[in-house]
């Protein structure tokens, strides 16, 4: 049975406050065998002290060995089984570019690419096009018009952009033209279900028009489109868990994802101090607060071990300010691991502490991967965090008689 | 795949003996941060010694964060997935009052309540009616007659009683008249599926007649009915696991539940010593023994930490007598946690030891929450205990080729 089906009938709202502090990409790896991870190397006196009076453990964002995208990993932390509640990559990309998707829209992630004179894709990323050229070329493509469908475009970084199709009766059951490797011609766009015919035609039309308009350009003389998806209709956190939640995040993708499940996205500055100030000023108005810290992940993706250490230490410094608000439940964790040595998201379980009045505390006295492996929560799936947070906030009734 | 579907084809009966000793509500919490739980505070030399040569761990009765009712928690210990095998609350209540339910019966849990002159429920519990008055009023209600259906009544404690409808073609798809909060009129009783019409009519008739008969009574001048359920047809433990099981329990609910899954309920006195004597005298006749100890839960529910400690110590004293019978597998655990500090069932994982010749033993030398968190079984779902018991009794064949 789905988490939400199981928990929804048990929910009893009360006045408790839950704070979920997510250090994006928190989990790490040592630079050499026997060395310390980023979190172990960081000086975190406040988190260490808190861990000593909290339950600790680690979570698999999706399941053993599975490296998650940020969207899926966050959904799991919010109690949505990421295997049941999937979101098309185009939608994640659109949310990440702060586009306001409407029900029925179909979003796709796109690349500018280079096609050779024989019609083969010579470079799927158009020589890692600078963003300025991307923006200029998209102005040209924005002149493409077709009866019954609107093409909404938004540049991303470098060679990437988002295409949103808006109109009646659109479908996301459309195949990509991306051959996935250089040296092959683009695939034809196909309808993957009967009702997707008109959408496939519209996308084919868009690609043909783009090829015509970009013909004289080098290196970006074609476009690849993929990851078609529609804005899904998920139960809100209020419907699923009886919460009145708020999101404190400055990056568009996280704000968009939070909105998708009914969180109120609070206006906030993007520094850690500004986010904590937003928490403080809105603490009376909500009962569940998701705070997102992006710097840890950015440093990990850049392979910058020391910068990730400093990003963790910056969060440690504000922990007393969060505790001063006396939340009933405080969880500190990451959405996934981003070890600097891998310069990428990874599958490694993510350290976590859960602080409440009702924990069984045999604290290791440190917040680190090593200490969390010995913690009382052991290793669990991220989707199991929400029932534990709700239980510790005494927001769940008994199951069964 | 369901536990039972998975295991049933693997079962190979043999002469081994399994004893499952359930201390109801065993799991606990410390009274102050860093303090000891009830089990940690109890002097349990025999359990500690046994833990040192057993596998230990903890179980989630249902899943992370979920607080179970006793029925659901016990079913899980017996190998029945409590989410698949659900029992209506009325049925649990009827079993708890030692009523003999027959296939087709529909049981409901009921309250005497107070209705004001405007037809609103002024007190859903009729001023927490004394049991003696409850018994007297039920004699009056037992005169209610209707063609084709029998109303069987049994008083519970205080304001509570059980109504069983007996007859042909009854359904449990009937809505409650309980408005859930004081100050609202009772809901009309409705059929929730087409075939439930006659049952809804019979319940409405019973409520109307009760109102007429109780009109002059104060404070109990009406009745609220809810939790309609039918005796489910579950596979017996013999069908599912090839066992010939016996239950040693003195409380009606546990005896009724055991009967529901085909255990033979042995006549027994209710003290720990009497229950162990029953185990000894019947040890040759069965291969699976469920022994239920109620005092631990009662003390926890009363918030009496010290009495729960003494109840645990009383069980520790008889452990040598159980071991003297040389069961092949002995499990000591609880069905759920009932920390005295919460005065209620809770979600916390429940300590467990599993003793057999075939364990991997790295014993902590103590039976306590703290020690079990470091045990080799880690934290698992209660429904996973049955396959472990059967395996240790060498009652399961290989799965797959």
Care to describe what's here?
Two copies of one chain form a homodimer. Chain A is α/β, with parallel strands linked by helices. Chain A folds into two domains: 3-87 and 234-392, 3-Layer(aba) Sandwich (Alkaline Phosphatase, subunit A), CATH 3.40.720; 92-230, no CATH class. Helices cover 31% and strands 18% of the residues of chain A. In chain A, the strands form two sheets. Chain A has an eight-stranded mixed sheet with strand order 9-8-10-1-11-12-2-13, sandwiched between helices. In chain A, strands 3, 4, 5, 6 and 7 form a five-stranded antiparallel sheet that branches. In chain A, helix 10 packs parallel to helix 12 (305-324). The longest helix of chain A has 20 residues, at 305-324. The two termini of chain A are 18 Å apart.
Write the layout of secondary structure elements.
The structure is a homodimer of 401-residue chains.
Chain A: H1 3-7, E1 18-23, H2 38-41, H3 45-51, E2 55-60, H4 70-77, H5 89-96, E3 106-115, E4 121-123, H6 131-141, E5 150-155, E6 160-166, H7 197-214, E7 222-230, H8 237-241, E8 245-248, H9 252-260, E9 264-265, H10 272-282, E10 288-293, H11 295-301, H12 305-324, E11 329-333, E12 350-355, H13 369-372, E13 378-381, H14 385-392
Parallel strand pairs in A: 1-10, 1-11, 2-13, 8-9, 8-10
Antiparallel strand pairs in A: 2-12, 3-4, 3-6, 3-7, 5-6, 11-12
Helix pairs in contact in A: 5-9, 10-12, 11-12
